[in-house]
Design goal:
Blueprint (H helix, E strand, L loop, with lengths): L1 H30 L3 H28 L7 E2 L6 E2 L12 E5 H5 L1 H4 L5 H6 L1 H11 L4 H4 L2 H13 L2 E11 L2 E4 L2 E3 L2 E10 L4 E11 L17 H27 L3 E2 L2 E5 L5 E5 L2
Helix pairs in contact: 2-6, 2-8, 6-8
């Protein structure tokens, strides 16, 4: 009897193992998934979207300079990403043409703002051609999020540069914050249709009071300037989103414009 009981028990365990093995295998596969796996899964969709994006960029290059806001009639349902990784990505993105043309100068050396505002086109392109930086290549979930952001983009706001003053170290503890002047054009990605345009100005900013920025280290001016450039990079994108939000009722942006102590309209995250 004991032997029979043992035999029955073993058989039950075998059947149970056969039932749960696929689930365990799937879970383990998810844990061991690589950026190569992610890239392979998204390659066709991403390449198609990047081709459509190239057509948008080509149209933006040839468009006339913008001196006043025009268009946006009937624009609705445009939602810029709030970069909440627990929520589905929005259907609108921002692309600064200067950074798109020279990412080595304006994107790759940067930090927070680069990842937030340019990762959707830069990191996906790097994944597709196998040139992801090592730190990103080890983060398949983050890379997949970038692919999702790219593929979800139904609208893109292309920013063009007319004048750019980069932040710089003046002397001692003095730094110039930088400024930008240009225009922005909203396109529908699917057919590269221009929906509206407007001029945009953006300004670098300090973190602190009375012109003092306690986050910058004057003993390492190169690093301080890089941080200021990163801030200006983010401010250019955020200002364009906030300005479009003011011009078109059918646009949802996580940023609004507010006047700072210098009298400049600067972006602030919506409460």
């Amino acid at each position: 009897m004991p032997a029979i009981a043992t035999r029955v028990s073993t058989s039950k365990h075998t059947r149970l193992a056969a039932l749960i093995a696929p689930a365990i295998g799937a879970a383990l596969a998810g844990c061991t998934r690589t950026t190569e796996d992610v890239t392979s899964q998204h390659r066709d969709a991403a390449q198609g979207q990047l081709a459509r994006l190239a057509a948008v960029v080509e149209n933006a290059r040839s468009a006339a300079s913008v001196t006043e806001a025009t268009g946006f009639e009937g624009v609705a349902g445009v939602a810029f990403d709030d970069h909440d990784t627990d929520a589905p990505p929005g259907n609108a993105r921002v692309l600064w043409l200067t950074a798109f043309d020279d990412p080595g100068e304006h994107v790759d050396p940067r930090h927070w703002s680069y990842a937030e505002h340019a990762g959707w086109w830069r990191q996906t392109a790097q994944a597709l051609d196998g040139s992801l930086p090592e730190n990103l290549a080890a983060l398949p979930n983050r890379v997949e999020r970038r692919f999702e952001e790219l593929e979800a983009a139904e609208y893109v706001l292309v920013i063009r540069t007319e004048h750019l003053t980069e932040p710089a170290h003046s002397s001692g503890s003095l730094f110039s914050l930088g400024a930008f002047a240009g225009d922005a054009l909203l396109y529908r990605v699917e057919n590269a249709e221009l929906l509206g345009s407007f001029p945009v100005d953006a300004f670098g900013y300090s973190i602190g009071f009375g012109g003092m920025d306690m986050t910058l280290d004057p003993s390492n001016p190169e690093r301080a300037v890089e941080n200021l450039k990163d801030r200006l990079f983010g401010c250019i994108h955020q200002t364009a989103m906030a300005r479009l939000n003011e011009l078109a009722d059918g646009v949802a942006s996580p940023f609004v414009l507010a006047e700072n102590e210098r009298g400049h309209l600067v972006p602030r995250r919506r409460d």
